[in-house]
Amino acid sequence: MFNLKDYLKQKQSLINDSLKETWVTSENIEPKILFEAMNYSLSAPGKRIRPVLIFACADVLDIPETDVMPMAAALEMIHVFSLIHDDLPAMDDDDLRRGQPTNHKVYGEAVAILAGDALLAHAFSVLTKLDQN
Known about the structure:
This protein has 133 residues and is mainly α. It contains six helices and two strands. It has helices at residues 4-24, 32-42, 49-60, 65-87, 103-107, 109-128; strands spanning 96-97, 100-101. It has a two-stranded antiparallel sheet with strand order 1-2. Helix 1 (4-24) crosses helix 3, helix 2 (32-42) packs across helix 6 and helix 4 (65-87) runs antiparallel to helix 6. It is globular, with a radius of gyration of 15 Å. The relative contact order is 0.15.
């Protein structure tokens, strides 16, 4: 019998592991404060619903998870970018996101803007490396 709670937990763990693997190779981002701000929001606890939906579609279409993993990671990066920008003082001016201080509260507004922009750019970089076959 299909258990949605177990499925979500398994896929969330999978995307979290993938984000960590993808992200370790990005430590060459300078200045370091930018990398820290990007990582702060990307590694925050979350439901990871968007990547889970990609995995579910892949399951239905009998596509290996490894083939859609870059798309799932990129989609989560894009989502996190939108959250960082949504929390900015010029938008919702939120103090907390996922139970933690928002990016701009920790790193300042300028760094938060750059962190969001850099996550968006990095997501597209991940997508450009997809196998075109």
